[in-house]
Write a structure and sequence with these properties.
mainly alpha
């Protein structure tokens, strides 16, 4: 295992693995606010999940450590014992034993289960309760305040729509009507291929045949890879909607989907749905931009195109400035020659 990768993902100094719980979550030593602790854990989990497919061993180790830190710091008795051991204060031996030792043996997790986030392992039935490390269930006694409410689905949807309509990649390169129409065509093509992929991914229970569905899946994935190369960096990168679908496109699609269990197929379905929502929102945004551009005056269009060139294509801007400086220098030399000729006469 390479702990240096985990340190890089979480912004920790090289060679600092394993860190204590507070340094792992970037918290002040002794921090006791459960809301802040949970917020930091969720932020770091989202960062780590972007690397699950390519580095499953490191991602599993990092997520286990994050889960242990959450459980330890939000359970009062465990936190007191852990602080006593960490800061050197006197604590009963029995209390210290409550904290989970760093080197205590634990059953090896299923890397594919962590790959798609909190999910059931193959050894569990769908009706059983997932382990605490996977679900991050608070272990506080009844007297403690209720944990913060989970993020509502509407908030997640809003973030996808905001990325599709307001982010810099979504708006870059749209200074002219031609650029807008080109982007609309690319988005429609991408959305068409994405919808065809939904035949295999929208329903987690759909059986995928390697011989029957494999050729069609591989064709769709090849088209998607080609379209992504000409599309803004809105979809498919780590931490973005469509990441799991994009990673599968780099492998033998039918074989990879057949290897997933039910919970992982559900995560793949959610990822595909989020990608479709993003592409649809971006298409609607482009339509609004075209309507708005039709109402602009010729002067406004020129100004918008110039602004797009200056902000979206710095290399072109630098070349134009260099050409302008050359012309100024050339005309200055020509003007001096004319002045000398007039003075000679």
């Amino acid at each position: 295992m390479r702990p240096d990768l985990i340190c890089e993902w979480l912004g920790l100094p090289a060679g600092a693995w394993p860190p204590d719980h507070y340094r792992l979550l970037d918290l002040a030593p002794g921090e006791s606010d459960p809301r802040l602790i949970e917020q930091r854990v969720q932020q770091r989990l989202e960062s780590v999940r972007g690397y699950q497919m390519k580095h499953p061993e490191q991602a599993t180790e990092a997520m286990n450590r994050l889960a242990q830190a959450y459980v330890c710091l939000t359970e009062p008795a465990s936190k007191r014992a852990y602080d006593a051991a960490l800061f050197g204060t006197v604590a009963p031996v029995a209390a210290v034993a409550v904290a989970e030792p760093a080197n205590s043996p634990s059953p090896a997790p299923d890397a594919l289960a962590w790959l798609f986030g909190p999910a059931l392992t193959r050894s569990q039935s769908p009706s059983s309760t997932p382990p605490p490390l996977a679900r991050l269930t608070p272990l506080s006694p009844p007297a403690q305040p209720d944990p913060p409410k989970p993020v509502e689905p509407a908030e997640l949807i809003d973030s996808v729509i905001a990325a599709a309509q307001q982010s810099a990649p979504a708006r870059r390169g749209l200074g002219t009507k031609r650029a807008l129409y080109t982007r609309v065509v690319a988005t429609r093509q991408f959305l068409s291929v994405w919808n065809e992929l939904g035949k295999y991914m929208e329903s987690p229970k759909r059986q995928v045949s390697r011989s029957v569905d494999g050729p069609e899946l591989n064709r769709l994935f090849q088209e998607m890879v080609q379209l992504r190369r000409r599309f803004p960096r809105l979809i498919g990168a780590a931490g973005q909607p469509g990441y799991l679908v994009a990673v599968l496109s780099e492998q033998e699609a039918a074989k990879s989907i057949r290897a997933l269990d039910e919970s992982q197929r559900e995560a793949l379905s959610r990822d595909w749905s989020a990608g479709r929502k993003l592409l649809t929102a971006h298409r609607d945004f482009l339509r609004q931009e075209i309507r708005a551009m039709r109402k602009r005056t010729f002067k406004d269009r020129i100004m918008r195109a110039a602004h797009a060139v200056l902000t979206d294509q710095p290399a072109v801007t630098f070349f134009l400035l260099l050409l302008l400086a050359f012309n100024i220098a050339l005309w200055r030399g020509y003007a001096w020659r004319l002045l000398e000729l007039f003075q000679g006469h």
